[in-house]
Amino acid sequence: MQFNSLLAVIVVLPAVLAQGTNWSQSCSGGFLTGSGPSLSLQAVCKTNSGANHTTTLGLSSCLGNSNGNLICQRGGAAFQSCGSCSLGVPNLTCNCPTTSGAGHTTTINTNNCIGNQNGNLFC
Ligand SMILES: *[C@@H]1O[C@H](CO)[C@@H](O)[C@H](O)[C@H]1NC(C)=O
Ligand SMILES: *[C@@H]1O[C@H](CO)[C@@H](O)[C@H](O)[C@H]1NC(C)=O
Ligand SMILES: *[C@@H]1O[C@H](CO)[C@@H](O)[C@H](O)[C@H]1NC(C)=O
């Protein structure tokens, strides 16, 4: 019984946690690193005590491809299909295939779904 309750908490928790926002307001120097499915965002973010902390977040864990448009979606795996990305903080522009396979240029404001939690980027 106790084990089952504990398991339920562990499984449910990530879906309940508030989504991160506005990372660029407390982080500096955001740039893209990695490629393909491991495309990542790296920045220097303030910890709660005001120190600078270098942090990297895999963007496939935060963004999805919805018919050619980048959307905020935990575990969305956008970079299984999207590529040719550029970052003009906070906007990420990529080429994402539509469901019919056509290339589509799409931009998302990463501040809508990525935040800074004590020096670490999260979504
Ligand atoms: C994020 O920034 C926007 C624009 O400055 C602001 O309207 C919004 O309240 C902020 N959200 C949070 C959670 O701080
Ligand atoms: C943190 O980094 C920013 C940007 O490079 C810099 O202006 C600031 O002085 C640094 N702060 C500390 C506490 O090191
Ligand atoms: C990001 O996109 C928003 C909305 O399209 C735009 O107003 C803003 O100027 C863009 N910022 C940058 C740095 O490109």
UniProtKB/TrEMBL annotation:
Residues 1-18 form the signal peptide. Gene3D superfamilies: Cyanovirin-N. Residues 22-123 form the Cyanovirin-N domain. Coiled coil: none annotated. Pfam families: CVNH. The keyword DNA repair does not apply. It comes from the Eukaryota. Keywords: Signal. This is Cyanovirin-N.
